[in-house]
Write a structure and sequence with these properties.
hydrolase activity; Hydrolase_4; two-stranded antiparallel sheet; Hydrolase-2_PEP; Rossmann fold; 2 domains; about 20% strand; hydrolase
Amino acid sequence: MQMTTFVPLEAFFLDMPVAAGLAVAGRFALFHPPQGRHHRGAVLYVHPLAEELNRSRRMAALQARALALDGWAVLQLDLYGCGDSAGDFGDATWDQWVADVLAGCEWLRQRMSLPSTSPLWLWGLRAGALLCVEASRRMPGPCHLLFWSPLASGKLALHQFLRLRAAAEMMGAGAKGVMARLRNELDQGRRVEVAGYTVAPALATGLELATLTPPNATTPPASLVWFELGTSAPEQALTPQPPGLAPWREAGFEVGFHLVDGPAFWQSPEFEAAPALIEQTTALVRRSAS
């Protein structure tokens, strides 16, 4: 019988300040301490939006555990108003979420007493990758970036999210009218309800402005590891790389793009695993510490 390696896990609430008028509130966090004698660095996981967060929890936990076994300190953090953290989703803003990511990075560095030269990874799934990019722009030094099926822009993320409401209200061509009405309500400063979530104009505006473009050139070079999930069909082997990769190379990032066999687990209400994604992610992140 195969033995399962025990990995300790710490669950706690990390107190962080929030926007003016709101009290200090705890963010739910899961910390996976690094295992073994060689501590490679730190990784902060940034989750996707709404139900994609819930549907991807298991895969995120499996990857965090694999990284911890490989010697990484990994923090999973529920952003303000999300998951088990304090606050309401309807009070969340894009800037608040970026601040949460930065605070999570600082907590990791202090907890592990990491020197500035120790590798730090921001790992984002879907819209979480956009948050990773924005946080990296505001960090004092370079960090590595790990993207799992990132969305090309916040505008696309917001459009896909609003379409959930449109699909629930109306089918066919009428959906365009619902989308236009939702956008108008946000532009007028009113909140909208989408799939059980309240979206505030401040969140929609910040998300819509987010782009998957690199921060300023990095010295020393940082890494960008980009994964997309697909099938193992032969024709997939020739899938072109996303056009958005070129600016990252020009900015000095060491870029790697990888198509991995596996399901779009963030879309499925049932747990679906992508073992190849976990294995390749762990191996490629390890290279930054070598």
